[in-house]
Amino acid sequence: MIKVIDIGANLTDPVFKGVYHKTHAHQGMTSIPDDFSDVIKRAKAVGMSAMMVTGGSLHESRKAIKLAKEDDCLYATVGCHPTRVKEFETTLDKSTNSPNPEKYYNDLLKTIEEGGDKVVAVGECGLDYDRTHFASIEIQKKYFELQFNLAETTKLPMFLHNRNTNGDFVEIVRKNRDKFSTGVVHSFTSSMEEMLQCVELGLYIGINGCSLKTEENVNVAKAIPDDKLMIETDCPYCDIKRTHASYKYLEESINNQAKQEENGINSNGEWWLAPKQKVKNRWTQDFMVKGRNEPCTIRQVLRVLAKIRNQDEQYLADVIYKNTTKVFFPNKQL
């Protein structure tokens, strides 16, 4: 049986409670439905044994821990995303009413400690030069480096973010490599050279739909060493779209499933290839919301990787599962 772990699920996003841009959009029932429990059920139905709920800020990290404590299969990361690092400098010291980055750092550390064994990584932290309108490069670098101290103090692995950083990410990781055990560069979209540099530093590579958009992406994913590969959805984002280079590796399976259904053959075993969906304002129970990615689609990522790497799907799932438990769940029985 295939078992999977989603290392990056943004389950604190309000869309998983039916709220889009602060508006409840789900309709079709006597009351506004909350389909979060259905999202979790669908994930477990595809063999999901654990999901890491991503913390991208202090507030979000606290929400991730609260959510993780409500279900045995959920765990959390704690950190500050590069687009949110200005929060270090907008946190005020109550006594002086002046910026106090140290307080924000200490609150992150306290949150990790209070989360106990539900916290499995420091992050999401790193660099993102595609979105410097949220935080300048210098501020991103400053507070990325600071978060290595969280990993050094707590002995947790790291959940890392890297977008278009012209070698700065690798340079900072290399400089601080003695402060943390290991970690994963999630939602990887960088070059072959940068992938190999990350692997050389002992990092793992997380692959999702956004990691498989282009032929170059596919070639990089194909070359990741077996023992450094992990998978994720980064939901509600990063699904595999028809326009992606990777879609053709799903197309045959999807078409075969459609033919089986036309011939009256039950193909529910692989329903995750083309799950039933409705747009958000017409949503009804037992349907996914169109345009909102979910953890259950992690099996699509696994299928694509197995095909491009010419590997047996069960074998690859077992390898990835072993990698993930080794890093994030070394003392847990999932």
Automatic annotation (TrEMBL):
GO terms for cellular component: cytosol. A divalent metal cation 1 binds at H24, H26, E124, D234. InterPro entries: DNase_TatD-rel_CS, Metal_Hydrolase, TatD-like, TatD-type_Hydrolase. Belongs to the metallo-dependent hydrolases superfamily. TatD-type hydrolase family. A divalent metal cation 2 binds at H161, H186. This is Uncharacterized protein. Keywords: Hydrolase, Metal-binding, Nuclease. GO terms for molecular function: 3'-5'-DNA exonuclease activity; metal ion binding. It comes from the Eukaryota. It holds the Pfam family TatD_DNase. It comes from Furculomyces boomerangus.
